[in-house]
Amino acid sequence: MSQNTAGSPQPSTDEGAGESRRRWKDFVTLHIPLVVFVALSIYATINQYHRWQSGVDHSLAYMIQWPIIGIFAIIVWNRYRKHGSFSNWVGRYYRERAARFEAEAEAKERAEVAILEEDPETQAWQAYVAQLHREDPREPPESANRR
């Protein structure tokens, strides 16, 4: 780490620039839109409240709806802030799920192979094949090796 003129340590240029870019991107794509949207939903709620007070009855429903929309925006913002985009999260979830299924399938296959190796009929078949190879140790024809 290098020192600036004030004496505080600064990260290397690659790490600092990447982190700064990420923070700026988060600020522009997450935080500013949230503040704007929540401010608009607050304004719409207040506006619908005043309209409801002046006698427009259906404004009561809108007055209730806008805070719910604002809360939903906060929930979505928090979700993106913690986990990134939805597609990244879904992709990671399904990759982990596929790896888990693959591990379970391998474990099941190993268990089946172990059961087959203990099976007397399988052992008899393997002994028979070994005996055939001892009696006729020829190599298979070359055409069989090319496949």
What do these coordinates show?
This protein has 147 residues and is mainly α. It has helices at 13-53, 59-83, 86-118, 120-135, 142-145, and strands spanning 2-3, 9-10. Helix content is 81%, strand content 3%. The chain has a domain at 10-84. Strands 1-2 form a two-stranded antiparallel sheet.
Q: What's the alpha carbon Rg, rounded to whole Å?
A: 34 Å
Low-pLDDT runs: 1-8
Helix share bin: over 70%
The amount of beta strand, in percent, is under 5%
What summary fits the major beta sheet? 2 strands, antiparallel
C-alpha end-to-end distance: 59 Å
Net shape:
elongated
How many helical stretches? Answer: 5
Overall pLDDT confidence: 81
**Which class best fits the helix and strand makeup?**
mainly alpha
What key phrases describe this protein's structure?
elongated; mainly alpha; two-stranded antiparallel sheet; 5 helices; 147 residues; 81% helix
Short structural description:
This protein has helices spanning 13-53, 59-83, 86-118, 120-135, 142-145, and strands spanning 2-3, 9-10. With 147 residues, the protein is mainly alpha-helical. Helix 1 packs antiparallel against helix 2.
Can you lay out the helices and strands and say which pair or pack?
Layout: E1 2-3, E2 9-10, H1 13-53, H2 59-83, H3 86-118, H4 120-135, H5 142-145
Helix pairs in contact: 1-2
